[in-house]
# Entry
Amino acid sequence: AQSVTQLGSHVSVSEGALVLLRCNYSSSVPPYLFWYVQYPNQGLQLLLKYTSAATLVKGINGFEAEFKKSETSFHLTKPSAHMSDAAEYFCAVNEAGANSKLTFGKGITLSVRP
Amino acid sequence: DAGITQSPRHKVTETGTPVTLRCHQTENHRYMYWYRQDPGHGLRLIHYSYGVKDTDKGEVSDGYSVSRSKTEDFLLTLESATSSQTSVYFCAVQGLQETQYFGPGTRLLVL
# Structure
């Protein structure tokens, strides 16, 4: 069975600071991993995805994530936070070749202080 | 944008009434999904469809039913709405490499 853990529910950073949002997963087979972003009162937008190609994945808006199999992690980073990055971020896992169902973490709200 | 629309976008209803939410897609995706989003729970899968008339339950399917009579439409019905079904409902479709794309959501309030 697959699962996703996003520790903590809220992260606050200063504008220009490093953003690090953690995601750990469990999966019995090589997974596909995703990060989605949700701005207030909107749907989820795909930020980036890992599908067994390069372990360092670059996404939109300057975000990137690194797949580390030994740590079962897929942490999301951005070198310099911008006010517009304030949103809720969801990590999700899908076991490749399984029944096409995503399992989501509970989400992390990112606040950016001026 | 995967060409997904949801209707209605907002709805207020009373306990015990049936409610149907519609998801419409324009890109002929085979897989479609219904999720609910609640604070502290992330997104939870209600039902999904892997083709016309082919559906299966997700983790929170009690009190919900679905139908898919044509590729582009996936309907979610709350058979007798309860206050615990107050939530934001999202439809999604699956594209390449198991990637899901989401609609704008429907806010449902059950009084």
Observations:
- Chain B touches chain A through 22 residues (CB under 8 Å).
